[in-house]
Design goal:
Elements: H1 11-14, H2 18-25, E1 29-32, E2 39-50, E3 77-82, E4 86-92, E5 100-111, H3 113-119, H4 133-140, E6 156-159, E7 169-172, E8 186-189
Antiparallel strand pairs: 1-2, 1-6, 2-5, 2-8, 3-4, 4-5, 7-8
The chain binds a DNA duplex (13 and 13 nucleotides) through residues 47, 49, 56-58, 61, 64-66, 80-86, 88, 90, 103, 105, 122, 128, 132-135, 174-178, 199, 201, 203, 205.
Length: 207
DNA sequence: CAGTCGATGTACT
DNA sequence: GTACATCGACTGG
């Protein structure tokens, strides 16, 4: 299979409701043609974020300089910096003016393993290369320069592999948030070894 | 294997 | 000042 011959997801894919898009992204191929060589991986874990009723979403309190990309027309990347050292990568969804996106939490590496291993020296096993949102950004060398990048033009694209059997999709609470934990807006492929471990989100600081 | 905790920059209060 | 859509080193079993 030549990954670069797979069809790129079109604009219509990204203009649907975010809670439909999130599970639909599972099994799709995240591709980068930047840098020393092709890097590609199958999306196996995502989380949806939406301005409406989701207090964990960056867009919940309205448009700001930081989250402005989330409100644009779907089909672009929203990349943010967090915890003083990490980037996370989201797919912006829905029409212009709606603040919504899907966080890419984990992929299963398919191509460019040599490049990924160089970018992820801390990973001792291949399962640890891309099983977290900041790890995916390291593997793809994604940073603030990619904020707003068009996924229809690249160099980062998401493609459809029609022969792919994705298996069972599971919904669960999202990871690492404190607000709106009751929303089951994390989606992953059951049993896939590249899905991150679901550690409890609760963190207390006062104790 | 699981649990704990420090690192570190930025947006927002 | 504080919280943060995290990671990896470290500990104990």
């Amino acid at each position: 299979m030549n990954i670069l011959e797979l069809p790129v997801l079109d604009r219509a894919f990204y203009l649907r409701p975010t809670l439909e898009i999130a599970p639909d992204l599972l099994g799709k191929i995240l591709v980068s043609t930047e840098g020393p060589g092709l890097v590609a991986g199958r999306i196996v874990e995502v989380e949806a974020y939406h301005q409406d009723g989701d207090r964990a979403a960056h867009s919940y309190r309205g448009r700001t300089k930081r989250n402005e990309i989330m409100f644009r027309e779907g089909g672009i990347l929203y990349v943010y910096f967090t915890y003083g050292m990490h980037f996370c990568m989201n797919v912006v969804t829905e029409k212009e003016g709606v603040g919504a996106a899907v966080l890419i939490r984990a992929v299963e590496p398919l191509a460019g393993l040599d490049v990924i291993r160089k970018r992820r020296p801390a990973a001792r096993r291949d399962e640890d290369l891309t099983n977290g949102p900041a790890k995916v950004c390291q593997a793809y060398a994604v940073n603030r320069r990619h904020n707003g990048l068009c996924l229809l033009e690249g160099p980062i694209t998401i493609r459809r592999d029609d022969g792919d059997e994705k298996g069972k999709i599971v919904a669960s609470p999202r990871i690492g948030i404190r607000d709106s934990v009751e929303l089951p807006w994390r989606f992953f492929l059951a049993g896939n070894p590249f899905v991150g471990k679901a550690k409890p989100a609760a963190r207390g600081r006062s104790g």
